[in-house]
Design goal:
The chain is about 35% helix and about 25% strand. By secondary structure, the chain is of the alpha/beta class. Bound molecules: 1-O-phosphono-alpha-D-glucopyranose.
Length: about 290
């Protein structure tokens, strides 16, 4: 069955990025001129997704408005002869069918995904974290790479990224059983382990493809790290009963939800930008730091 549905959890407080996240969703933080969540939706659409559920919370209205149509602004741009800019705005609201649901209490990523149960029904689905941009280094978007693994092996699959040992405490980490190439089978998962307790240096990297059975395991998942319901803990329960896989993806991850990576990503994407790239490169060369 072709995977057509995706869930984008975007309800978190964004406390690592205060004070901007006091009133602005962290998913709306820009990379040059585009909010990170737009890149996430574009990745899903390029992977073949047609329907997206965003799990939001209070204070996230800017996300809804970004994906709604803005007729007045489009008309104003058209009147000024800026038809291409108007068409680009229209495209944002017509890329996919976008649905919203509100997480009632901040009980963690696993709890947020649980809100997708009726949207998903009995189909496999993708999960893309709304604050992280992942750029594929091949023709296939990273979510598409996971879909291929799901189809080949018939089990849920997470994107993996090798990280330095001193950084494993920031991530969910897989206990892998080696397989062919870039796909491993999961023996277990640990959420944000200390370097000594980490079963590997392969971190869960913001993209997942799950079968609908994940909801049964989420129902059985007790509160874990941070007193929250963690998707990583539900995955650990699942691998005890069903095969699950990890794929070391061909791609580069940019976590916009933390300050240093946000700045680095903006510099990198700014350098590539046709309008400002040259000027930014010149200015960086002149900086005496
Ligand atoms: C979440 C997940 C974690 C994963 C990380 C990056 O953590 O809980 O397992 O490795 O995203 O994909 P967060 O960054 O929300 O703390």
């Amino acid at each position: 069955m072709k995977i057509k549905k995706a869930v984008i959890p975007a309800a978190g407080w964004g406390t690592r990025f205060l004070p901007i996240t006091k009133s602005q969703p962290k998913e709306m933080i820009p990379v040059v001129d585009t909010p990170v969540i737009q890149y996430v939706v574009e990745e899903a659409v390029r992977s073949g997704i047609t329907d997206i559920l965003m799990v939001v919370s209070g204070g996230k209205r800017a996300i809804e408005e970004h994906f709604d149509r803005n007729w007045l602004l489009e008309a104003a741009l058209n009147e000024k002869g800026r038809a291409a800019a108007a068409a680009a705005l229209e495209r944002i609201s017509s890329m996919a069918n976008i649905h919203f649901v509100w997480q009632k209490e901040m009980n963690g990523l696993g709890d947020a995904i649980r809100y997708a149960r009726s949207f998903v029904g009995q189909e496999p689905f993708a999960v893309l974290l709304g604050d992280t941009l992942v750029e594929s280094t091949t023709d296939v978007p990273v979510t598409g790479q996971l879909m291929d693994v799901y189809e080949r092996f018939g089990g849920s699959v997470v994107a993996l990224e090798r990280v330095p040992r001193e950084k494993v405490h920031r991530y969910g980490v897989i206990d892998p059983i080696a397989m062919d190439g870039n796909v491993v089978r999961a023996r277990g998962f640990v959420e944000k382990p200390s370097p000594e307790d980490a079963p590997s240096d392969l971190a869960v990297a913001s993209r997942y493809v799950f079968g609908p059975e994940i909801f049964d395991f989420l129902d059985r998942t007790p509160r874990g790290k941070g007193n929250e319901i963690q998707i990583t803990d539900a995955m650990r329960l699942m691998v005890a009963e069903l095969p699950m896989f990890g794929c070391v993806v061909d791609g580069v991850r940019y976590d916009i939800g933390n300050k240093l990576d946000f700045i680095k990503t903006n510099v990198l994407f700014g350098l590539r930008h046709e309008e400002i790239g040259g000027a930014l490169r010149g200015w960086l060369r002149e900086l005496d730091v």
